[in-house]
Sequence to fold (467 residues):
Amino acid sequence: MITKPKGCHDIYGSEAKKWQYVIKMIDSLMEKYNYEFIRTPIFESSEVFHRGMGESSDVVTKETYDFVDRGERNMTLRPEGTAGIVRSYIENKMYGNMSSPVKLYYNGTMYRYERPQSGRDRELTQFGVELLGSDDPLSDAEVISIPVNLYKMLGLQEVKVKINSLGDAESRNKYREVLKEYFHPHLDELCEDCRERFSKNPLRILDCKVDKDSDILKNAPKTLDYLNEESKIRFDKVKEYLQALEVDYEIDPKLVRGLDYYNHTVFEIEAHVEGFGSNNVLAAGGRYNGLVELLGGPSTPGVGFACGLGRLIMALDLEDIKLPIKEDVEVFVMAVSDTEKNYAATLVQSLRMSGFRVETEYTGRGLKAQFRQADRLNAKYLIILNDEDLAHNELKVKNNKTKEELTLTLDYLLYYLDEVLLEDEDYTIDDSCECSSDDCCGNHHDEEHECCGKEDCHCHHHEEEEE
RNA sequence: GCGAAUGUGGUGAAGUGGUUAACACGCCAGAUUGUGGCUCUGGUAUGCGUGGGUUCGAUCCCCACUAUUCGCCCCA
Fold:
């Protein structure tokens, strides 16, 4: 049997419906923030990532899918979204062609040659945002608020936002030196990996899991103590704006992020649901003011984040959140004889063109099996064709819930279905409650949220009433 | 790159060195000669991941490989 590549997944069935729903929410959220969708190639010249992400990160040095194409060019399957987008920003001269700042979002697959485990695949899907051309602390705060609001929209509860500041290049370099000085005499007390990190990327020692409880780490100098005045003021501004945007956060002085391009604000959003594996970062990002220049463009500030969709859906599952996903069919058309089937083909076509979600029988099963099939598909209405009725230009429609059955003429059918299906309020997906009440449930399906009381709210309170 | 666990049908899952590999669900058909979701009856495996080995004989013992899952590194 031929199997899928290691660390990849086939997404289908109800799983695929969740993905589509989440992506739909992302699109509608980004529309409100006025970000534009961008799609860049799934592979780029290797240089894009080597220069962009930095040689000290493992992602670039040992986790990329590299290949040489037939023209002997070195190519790399993108391991993340930012570098490619910055390349595109420069190449398309968006700094001149688009209104500034340029606000872009993407959603696509990334590739990393790693050992798969819970929450980590070789092919992963990320949604992310890049805001280029603004150094205003408000843009940092707003970017952080995007995933926070997405999770809120989806009903996720157990998330924690962590922020920190690395300061500008000056502060960061100074801190790096201080840190090396501090750790140097303690080298043999640290774990093997940390000794490796010391020379490669000393900042990463801070979030070592092995040594995290040792006094050496606890007493290590903090980034925030080495920010210069300007960076400090900037970070305070970011925090102010976060409060204004009602984003709850905590400051984690050990948060440093792995990619070289970050400076000033860095952040992570973690899942804290019971049962989540150790890879619990749902989204992460930060400011990367030198990156555009590094990749050959004009000096341009930028902020962004990336959000792993696989992990997000895992979190939704673990919090047992039921997404409002359509799992049913409006009309199921049954036919057995050849003339019935012929008639069914035409009928199904016209019902679909009239906007109904219609299924019919394809395998030549008996009527009994067709009833079973209709139930499996959660059909709301059944149309049962038989030759006798058809001779009178009539057909039978059965409400699959009440079991009421009517004999109608074809002319009347569309009118009837229109009436009857529109009555089902829960039948249309309304993706968000529009009210602005503070304790709005936002369509959450959990018990903790109070309902805002709006008519068009589809939270669990109303669902119960409807049932 | 390192470490651990697992690998039996469409699914879940028992099981034993020795004729026909439990059970449950699902699916298909019939009882019900075109109106069902209950019930009953019957049907439903390239033979237990792949390749070697031990043995008179292995799905069950040994080895290698592979796949999946989980952890480390790293990362969303």
